[in-house]
Amino acid sequence: MMKLDSYWLDTAPLFTGGEREPVSGRVDVAVVGGGFTGLSSALALARRGASVVVFEAGRVIGAASGRNGGQCNSGLAHDYGSLAARIGAERAAAYYRAYEAAVQTVEEVVARERIDCGFVRCGRLKLAAKPEHYGKLARACERLAREVDPAVEMIPPERIRDEVGSDAFFGGLLQKTSAQMHVGRFGVGLAEAATRHGARILENAPVTEIKRLGDGTYRVGSARGSVHATQVLLASGSSAVGPFGWFRRRLVSVGSFIITTEPLDRALLDRLLPHRRGYVTSKNVGNYFRTTADNRLVFGGRARFAMSNPRSDQKSGRILRATLAATFPELADARIDYCWGGLVDMTADRLPRAGQHDGMFYSLGYSGHGVQMSVHMGELMADVMAGKADANPWRELDWPAIPGHFGKPWFLPFVGAYYRFQDLIH
Ligand SMILES: Cc1cc2nc3c(=O)[nH]c(=O)nc-3n(C[C@H](O)[C@H](O)[C@H](O)COP(=O)(O)OP(=O)(O)OC[C@H]3O[C@@H](n4cnc5c(N)ncnc54)[C@H](O)[C@@H]3O)c2cc1C
Question: To pair with 103 at 20 to 30 A between CA atoms, which of 59, 118, 404, 414?
Answer without folding.
Answer: 59
